[in-house]
Amino acid sequence: LVDTKASKVFIEKEIVKCIDLVKNGVHGVLFVVSVKNRFTPEEAGVLDSLQLLFGANSLNYVVVVFTSGDALEGSGITLEEYLNDCPPQLQWPFLLLSHDNGVWNGLAPGEYLTSPDQRIRLEMERDCNLILTDTQYSRMLWHSNTTGDVDQRCFLCLQPDGKLGYI
């Protein structure tokens, strides 16, 4: 969805093609943002495009994953402070997942979270890549395909309305 060299019309046509390939329709969108960089106009455009293509409620089905949380820790900025400086598209209320009966603030390499029904699993691999897996069908849904350092952390945020409660 973010390709500064492609036209908006081209990207929208590609999205429609992808939707045609999905047998049961789109159930959600995974949106990955690095906190090392400021939220760009192109990234804001992705969220605007989702609303344009799928309607105003489409953001209710977006899972936002913030990577490189260690960069926030190093700068002394909290995730909430980071979000306050972001454009309105990222300022809707977030709920951080809890982990080990406390506030969850990231995934370390080798750690993972699963949905309440154990069907969806988000794991940070040893090489700091994120992988989203459908455990029911034993298939990978998404892989970040990046390189990183072993001290990297990521934040997984959900909207509190419960529509994304499966992650």
TrEMBL record:
UniProt domain AIG1-type G: residue ranges: 1-91
Pfam family name, one: AIG1
Keyword RNA-binding among UniProt keywords: no
Source organism superkingdom: Eukaryota
Coiled-coil region(s): none
GO molecular function term, any single one: GTP binding
The keyword Repressor is annotated on this UniProt entry: no
Database matches in InterPro entries: Bulb-type_lectin_dom_sf, G_AIG1, GIMA/IAN/Toc, P-loop_NTPase
Keywords, ordered alphabetically: GTP-binding, Nucleotide-binding
Name recorded for this polypeptide: AIG1-type G domain-containing protein
Protein source organism: Taxus chinensis
